[in-house]
Amino acid sequence: MRGTLRRVVPRLLLPATAVYQRWRPGIRILMYHRVVRGLPQDQLTVSPERFEEQMAVLARTRRVMSLADAALALGSGERQAGAVVVTFDDGYRDNLTVALPILEKYRIPATIFVTTDFCDQVSSHPRYGERAAGLHLNWDEVRELLRSPLISIGSHTVSHPYLQRLDPEAARREIGESRRRIEARIGRPVEFFCYPSGDFGEREMRYVQEAGYRAAVSVAPGLNRRATPRYALRRTEVTDRDGARELRAKLHGAFDPLHALLHARRRREFDARRLGVPNGEIAS
Which of 36, 165, 199, 232 has the fewest CB atoms within 10 Å, counting from its CB? Predict the structure, then answer.
């Protein structure tokens, strides 16, 4: 059923969403995780061939900007027709070994959000379990990434927790300490934050602002305009299923209504787990 909706709904909505975006343009922030072969069932993974196809589409059809430039543009209210930002979450080693050469080939800037415990090699993303050895960037590799003028580094907390489940002191530590650790390791300011698993609320937004970040990104889908909260910027997930046609549809917003429904359901599931009640008892 979901596959059918994914094929049919964007095709029906594309003409209307394309017109709407011309009328009300904004900045679309794309979300990636891994670029690697051999994990076809992993939603977080895009193959190198598919990633290059996607970057070629962006280079040919869009104005790709850094996250820092996007934040400035959103603050100024300047209209940003066709503007796109590329981001990566979790700080995987393949961002350096596989993604970076492709980004450099097409001159596409990107922000990589790293989790400091992962870079310290004391833990790794639980999704990968025993396969996690050597999965994440270490600090030498983070600094190697930064030799490219196209790359900037953002914070993705210390240990990748669900922030809303933490007490205030622990949540503040995850948000603030990660920034301090990254800055100490790379010798540069860290201006942007990414909420792990998209788990945040008003409290977390306030903590991020208090920690000195300029803005933060979420997993809520859609375009970013001047009215979009700076500490809840929206992003569009890109997967290995997105060939050139599907990517263009996402860039035009044809997937946004479907993604909004899926995101709302996911938020209800998050709230249910956090509150310890069955999903069905959480009101929409």
Answer: 165
